Amino acid sequence: MKYVALTEEKIEIEPLFAKLIDPKYGAINTFTGTIREWTGEIHTEKIRYTSYKEMALKEMDRLATAVEKEYDASVVVVHRLGELELSDIAVFIGVATAHRAESYEASRMIIEELKKRVPIWKEEFDTDKIRWGGSSNHEN
Question: What is the pTM of this model?
Answer without folding.
Answer: 0.93
